Amino acid sequence: MDKDVIPLLCCPDSGGELELKTEQEEDNRILAGELVSIETGHSFPIKDGIARMLPAREEGPPRSEAIPNGPAWEARVHQFERGLLSRIFTPFETSAFRYGVDLSGEDWLIELGCGRGRLSVHFTGIPHRHVCVDTSVNNLLVCKDRVEQRGFRYTSWVQADPVHLPFNTDSFDKLFSAQMIQHILKVEHRTQSLQEMARVCRPTGRLVVSAYSYDLFALLRRDKSGKHRGGLGYLRFSKEEFISLLHAGMLVEEVNQKLQYVWVGHGVPIKEFSMVIS
Q1: What is the residue-wise DSSP string for 176-203?
Q2: Which of these, 35, 126, 269, 273, could form a disulfide with 201 (CB 3.0-4.6 Å)?
């Protein structure tokens, strides 16, 4: 956990300030310690350089239940990476996200639903700071190892609920989220997740989001929704449905389909003073 990222963090329950208690640090990085909510007193540990920032609860999945369960999400990420589709699709997806976010060396980038770092390694050397967020610590540990093996120093990892992001408003210049939103099965949670993405981005920032597409080919397969091997549920969106979803947090500039598989949409965050024109 990069020390420079600590001021961006807030309590995922109250949105309040956190107090850092360091146990181990090295080269401006927190390896172990805890972040304590000044308002609620709840402690969020930092272990192996990863801030564990899920909303307070005893055990189980994130409070929003946005991701059904950790093992199912981890299994899907691993399964996709091992498949031929990932090797074919990743270059196209990487190109689409780079075009959409338009990264520079001055940007603070957040990647929501980073998984095991499939796309992270293609972005982390570009921005000033890169924060990888996932609900699974196991995914984050793999992502961290992959990034560090490539010698990149300015990346941080945070375990968080996509509906209760533990970051202050207007913290990041750019945000992208690849193939996560289709696994958030409740409408209200998808809406809240898009609103959270917009909240943590600065007014001049950019958002890029992708999700499974529902087109003629999916219609012929009767594949509107289902479960992957391992039990992770998913939804597919028509172009109109996807644009409507994005409007919960984004002034949409462009939506394109990639390889008849996903929609990729990009635009600017909707703030209180923004207006959607349909």
Answers
A1: EE-S-GGG--SHHHHHHHHHHHHHHEEE
A2: 269
